[in-house]
Write a structure and sequence with these properties.
The chain contains five helices and no strands. The protein is mainly α.
């Protein structure tokens, strides 16, 4: 007589580590004048949150971060008289919005970790 194992593999409810690290890296890079390179952690946070995060707030916060980063990036790319660097061209209000959206993602990931 054979018996089938009914123990299910434990599914992780945690937010991926890459999303958490990226949420901390974005404000550091934007405030440190590496705004164009901050596209990498923004993309990692967005893709990781949309594909692997089960918490709805984490997904929404990652999408908010991506949108607040994309607006000044698109403005900088489409302006014919823009500065040679995104860090020099970005308005301080957008820097504040990006940092606030990243803080919202940090809070959402920390809240998702609590049992």
């Amino acid at each position: 007589m054979t018996t089938a194992s009914t123990s299910l593999a434990r599914t992780s409810q945690r937010t991926p580590l890459a999303v958490t690290v990226s949420s901390y890296a974005v404000p550091v890079m934007v405030l440190g004048q590496f705004a164009l390179l901050a596209i990498v952690p923004v993309a990692i946070a967005l893709v990781g949150a949309l594909r692997h995060a089960r918490d709805r707030d984490v997904r929404w916060a990652a999408a908010l971060l991506a949108v607040t980063y994309a607006i000044p990036l698109v403005v900088w790319l489409t302006r014919p008289d823009g500065a040679p660097s995104l860090s020099k061209d970005i308005h301080p209000a957008f820097v504040g919005l990006i940092v606030a959206a990243s803080a919202a993602l940090i809070v959402a990931t920390l809240r998702a970790r609590r049992p």
